[in-house]
Specification:
3 domains; three-stranded antiparallel beta sheet; TerB N-terminal domain-containing protein; TerB_N; disordered N terminus; two-stranded antiparallel sheet; single chain; 9 strands; mainly alpha
């Protein structure tokens, strides 16, 4: 049985001296570089920089002529070998043995060591990295604090703009194994992203330990497992809206597994082996820090099938929201965009614009509910420049429906295309159509322009388009809905004139 909980094991880690190396291998205590003593062969720590061929090459390197016991250590620097330290020369990619380099390449490597080790030169990084992994895995006298510093240096190297995929993968494999051996605190968070070599140990070990502890997995760990398994790329809605997707995945997971997901295990022991980047050595990894033997989750398929379903469900729920924003990239903060979010997601991504719009709709419904389609569209935030396409009004009706407001008549069922000056009524969902005045229940209506004289009595609901009773328009009146370039303020003006006429009639 475990001697301690996995949460404690993952967060505790090992105490380390991270100040040894924060900006490269030359950082540490101030000390004057010195040439190695005659016959010296060994590891130069970070705080004791060395001098080779007149260059201060820093520490964290092997220095001296290699003996029989270190013949496999290609990164050893023999100061007796000639090196051309003037400008020129380069270390070829994949160089594995310093002693086999020509003098110009040796000089290039020494200059790289002395200049901060920040250049992503593939040959130099690879040769240097060999010494780091050898020190970490093979030298039994390596102290935990020094291992921590070596891991930090490997993480720094990974951050360089290295073009070679094989070298990047070698650094990633080393970092993965080293983090697990040192029980780094960052193992408490799941990794993400597929690796060429399969599931990383930073996922296998914590998940295996949680299973052995009888713990259930959270949505973060299940998604991390799915991500590392390389099951496929996320669809565009999830990639374009990662925050919304993440919340939806968590909600769908919680709905299906309210107490967490308990993995059904098929036993196979996890026995990882680290293989050096050059193939010079292999080492079984000691996982005794985590207690009893851990299961290998690499062969389990059920958790990934469940994650597939949750990923697709969360992505599909974003399809409508994503389609709206693709067509209206500047409307992300609009009330209409908020309406196209799944209903259970909206409380986690509040929208002041949507709250303002809903407050307006409640006020309109309290006053009878009449409004112009153009004004509704403008307030929703979906009004384009110029005269809107009739399809935009159908889209507005869909958005209102999602927000719990109905339009009567519904533009989506109109016989004739509606326009900005089409007068409709905002109602709660489910209100019967027959409760409305007759003109509203027979089809889409268009508001007649109201003269600028606001005192003109209102003659009732606007007549239908095409009605034989409709007379000629007053001279000087404006049909805002038909004028190219009409925008929200004009629709609001028209609505105001309609309301003023209604109030004047009511007051008379």
């Amino acid at each position: 049985m475990f001697a301690r909980s996995i949460a404690s094991a993952l967060r505790e880690g090992l105490a380390g001296a991270h100040d040894f190396l924060t900006r490269g291998a030359g950082a540490g205590k101030e000390s004057a570089p010195a040439a190695p003593a005659p016959g010296f062969a060994g590891w130069i720590p970070a705080e004791r920089p060395a001098l080779v061929a007149g260059l201060p090459v820093g520490g964290m390197i092997y220095l001296g002529a290699p003996g029989a016991e270190t013949a496999a250590g290609g990164a050893w620097i023999d100061p007796a070998l000639p090196a051309e330290t003037e400008e020129g020369g380069e270390v070829p990619p994949g160089a594995a043995v310093y002693a086999e380099l020509p003098p110009g390449a040796r000089g290039a490597y020494l200059r790289w060591l002395a200049s901060g080790r920040a250049d992503p030169a593939e040959g130099c990084v690879f040769l240097y990295f060999q010494g780091l992994e050898r020190r970490f895995f093979l030298d039994s006298e390596t102290a935990p604090a020094e291992r921590e510093a070596i891991l930090d240096e490997a993480i720094r190297l990974r951050g360089l703009d290295i073009a070679a995929p094989a070298l990047r993968d070698a650094l990633e494999r080393f970092i993965d194994a080293a983090r697990v051996i040192l029980c780094r605190a960052d193992l408490a968070a799941p990794p993400a992203g597929a690796r060429p070599w399969g599931l990383p140990l930073a996922l296998r070990v914590p998940v295996g330990a949680m299973i052995m502890q009888g713990m259930t997995l959270t949505h973060e760990w299940l998604f991390g497992w799915w991500s590392c398994a390389g099951r496929g790329a996320l669809r565009p809605p999830a990639l374009r809206h990662p925050a919304e997707f993440g919340t939806l995945f968590a909600l769908r997971f919680a709905r299906r597994f309210p107490e967490g997901y308990r993995v059904r295990l098929r036993w196979a022991e996890l026995a990882p082996v680290y293989r050096a980047a050059t193939g010079a050595f292999e080492r079984p990894l000691d996982l005794s820090t985590y207690g009893e033997p851990l299961p290998d989750i690499g062969a389990l398929s059920e958790p990934l099938a469940i994650a597939d379903e949750l990923v697709e469900a969360a992505t599909a729920a974003l399809d409508r929201f994503d389609a709206f924003l693709e067509a209206n990239p500047g409307a992300r903060d609009s009330a209409m965009a908020h309406a196209f979010l799944p209903a259970d997601l909206r409380p986690f991504h509040p929208s002041p614009e949507a709250e303002t719009f809903l407050a307006w709709t409640r006020a309109r419904m309290a006053a009878g509910g009449h409004a112009l389609l153009g004004d509704i569209l403008f307030r929703l935030g979906g009004a384009p420049a110029g005269r809107p396409d009739p399809a935009r009004f159908s889209e507005a009706a869909e958005a209102l429906e999602r927000l719990g407001v109905a339009l009567t008549p519904d533009p989506r069922a109109a016989v004739r295309p509606p326009g900005p000056s089409t007068l409709v009524r905002l109602t709660p969902p489910g209100e019967p159509a027959e409760a409305l005045p007759a003109p509203f229940s027979t089809g889409v209506t268009t508001a007649e322009p109201v003269p600028r004289n606001a005192a003109t009595p209102w003659a009732g609901p606007p007549r239908e388009v095409g009605s034989r009773e409709a007379g000629p328009r007053e001279a000087g009146s404006r049909d805002v809905g038909r004028r190219p370039g009409a925008a929200g303020p004009d629709w609001q003006e028209l609505l105001g004139r309609v309301e003023a006429s209604r109030k004047a009639r009511a007051g008379g």
